[in-house]
Specification:
The protein is an all-beta fold and 151 residues long. The chain has no helices and 10 strands. The chain is 0% helix and 40% strand.
């Protein structure tokens, strides 16, 4: 996703599994100078009390300047939606990003985000398809500055 710090940087976050734990890697790409920085492994540590839990069939999208992730719990039920605002170091689930209460997936889940900021959730096994977005992501920003042009 586009970096929040520099408009010519792209932030990449990749998650995977090591045993029963989730692991996270992060890197930046400078598109202005065509430079790619090395991958950084972000290990699970005792001081990080908000790691990404182990999820099967995990799916992540860039949404609202965060990473949004969902998957299946080890018990095979649809997980909460987890978000990270710090490129995967810490993850939170909460009231702002909530999945559909009746969503059921038994073997697979897929998620994507459209250019008009809708998040689509596809639930394997049940065949359910859900769509939603934060209301503020659907509003058009009103023009607040104007310039005068000579005719």
């Amino acid at each position: 996703m586009e970096s929040r710090l520099y408009n010519h940087f792209i932030d990449l976050t990749v998650t995977g599994h090591s045993g029963d734990s989730t692991v996270v890697w992060y890197k930046q790409i400078d598109t202005q100078y065509n430079h790619s920085y090395p991958w950084t492994y972000m290990p699970r540590t005792n001081e990080n009390v908000f790691p990404l839990p182990y999820l099967k069939s995990q799916q992540s999208v860039a949404y609202d300047n965060r990473i949004m992730t969902i998957g299946l719990t080890p018990q095979g039920t649809l997980s909460d939606i987890y978000t990270s605002a710090d490129n995967g170091r810490t993850w939170f689930s909460g009231e702002e990003y909530v999945g559909p209460a009746n969503a059921q997936a038994s073997n697979q889940v897929a998620m994507l985000c459209t250019p008009d900021h809708f998040v689509w959730l596809f639930c394997g096994g049940s065949g359910q398809i859900w769509r939603g977005r934060l209301n503020r992501m659907g509003w058009t920003e009103n023009q607040t500055s104007f310039t005068r042009t000579a005719h």
